Amino acid sequence: MTFKDQFSFVRQNTKKNKTRLFMTILATAIGCTFLIVLASVGFGLHKSIIGEMMENRLVTEVTLYGKTDDKGAFHELTDTDIEYFETIENVKAVTRRQTLQQWPEFQLDDYKINSNTLVTYFPEEIKAGFELSKGRLPEKDNEIVVGSAFPETISKDLSKVDEPYNEDGTLKEEYAYKGELIDQTINMQVIKMEDGKEVKKAIPLTIVGIAKAPSREWLKITDVFISEAVLKQVEAYTGTRGGSLEPGGEASEQKTDRTYDNVNLYADNVKSVAAISEQLKKDQYAAHSIADELKQINMIFTIMKVGLIFIGTIALIIASIGIYNTMTMAVTERAPDIGIMKAIGANPKTIKNIFLLESSYIGFLGALIGTVVAYGISYIVNLALPLVLTAVFEETPPKGLVLSHIPWSLTLISVSICLIVTLFSGWRPAERATRVDVLKAMRREV
């Protein structure tokens, strides 16, 4: 008997009891739907979190904190290290920043702000993706770039104001700066200690650019980016390295090599990040990249997805009980047919294959229907989730949030599990069919 004949025989027999067949397929479809939808939550959250990391952080970035020597001592990074980083293969940029060791006050007419101040080497910053929303990059020593939130944060003196902010957290209009910052001269008030007292000096700087806002709307950057020449002015005035307020002798008499507080290395492509990171760690540099985080996150979500698939499989195992019952009854009802087939010389293996084919047929139909329903539920869930969060919980969902995601891999895994479970469910009844006695079968006694 050919496979085509076996399949025709199966279809003919399944039409004899449509209600029972429908209920069995329905149970299998529900189990498959539950498995796919449940596991899709793990895939959806994984996609959302990884997508946010890809969007909000540079995946080609490697952050360096320092270096450990052969004696175990930890050292800050210097120009010698920067030169070495630039020679590493597939490195496109090495950014380095020094933090001014005090928070100077920046004053423009009646408006002022205390900001973190960073010495920045812009050629490498541009290679790494630094962008401006307004203005241009500094071309002279006294020209600076300010952070994206600097214009909305600089304000009049608020020390004597009770409620300077609106309910939404923005500065009230009467205290906010309304003019144009580009090409404005702003005074940076630096401090040094003399006889236990603070002495101030104003260094005039020109704002020529405003940095582009980060993709994270809640991240407010008010940093001021200055040149190394300005830092040297501050050090010459304070007499300390980095403009620190703590006494320590002349800056020029301290460490001869310039050290950096923040060094980031950027690879040409994502694939090179892991190799670069491994090389740096081998050279005893303290390095960290988003690739390290992705490994950990991927492992956590892999365990989560496997767990959800395992739980979902339980629903299919429950549905398999119905398939087992259906196939057992089918063997009983078709005892005469089995007897006739054996009487005319049918191979027991053929009889077994017919019943296994029938259970697989039920499983395939259930998996097909369950998959279609699961995709529909997934679509509805993702469509309704923002509305539910907004209407019921009064929360704004994160941009790009996907609660349910069904990749082809999940579909294939689920359908495979469904077919395997249904195949095993029909295995025992199929074995029983091969042991049917011909004479008893003809008398409908099984």
UniProtKB/TrEMBL annotation:
Q: Where is the MacB-like periplasmic core domain?
A: 22-282
Entry membrane topology: Multi-pass membrane protein
Q: Which regions form coiled coils? A: none
Cell membrane found in the keyword field = yes
* A single cellular component GO annotation: plasma membrane
| Alphabetized InterPro entries for the sequence | ABC3_permease_C, MacB_PCD, Macrolide_Exporter_MacB
**Could you tell me the keywords of this UniProt record?**
Cell membrane, Membrane, Transmembrane, Transmembrane helix
Question: What protein is this chain from?
Answer: ABC transporter permease
Q: Which PANTHER family match?
A: ABC TRANSPORTER PERMEASE YTRF, MEMBRANE COMPONENT OF TRANSPORTER-RELATED
Main subcellular localisation:
membrane
Q: Which family does it belong to?
A: Belongs to the ABC-4 integral membrane protein family.
Provenance organism? Lederbergia citrea
Which residues belong to any copy of the ABC3 transporter permease C-terminal domain?
309-435
> Where are the bilayer-spanning segments?
21-45, 299-324, 361-385, 405-427
- Give compartment(s): Cell membrane
Any single GO molecular-function term of the entry would be: transmembrane transporter activity
